[in-house]
């Protein structure tokens, strides 16, 4: 699972607009906006999974909180190195 801040950060890393994520996932723009504003926990499991799959397929890795720090996102090395 990811939170709304991770979703916004992932989108920014990829240089995508909210409309771009909506297009990638075949979800409506209002759904994407809602997920980024109030969090994916208020969305259906299918919608959350669609966003997660699309962002991960584009190269995003969601990082869980651990002893070293809080949650985050990063791009896979193969995406960064091109």
Automatic annotation (TrEMBL):
Task: Tell me which stretches of the chain form a coiled coil.
Answer: none
Which SUPFAM superfamilies is this protein grouped with? lambda repressor-like DNA-binding domains
Ranges where the HTH cro/C1-type domain occurs: 7-37
Instruction: Name the PROSITE patterns on file.
Output: HTH_CROC1
Quote one Gene Ontology molecular function term. Answer: DNA binding
Superkingdom to which the source organism belongs: Bacteria
This chain belongs to the protein called HTH cro/C1-type domain-containing protein
Q: Which organism is it from?
A: Pannonibacter phragmitetus
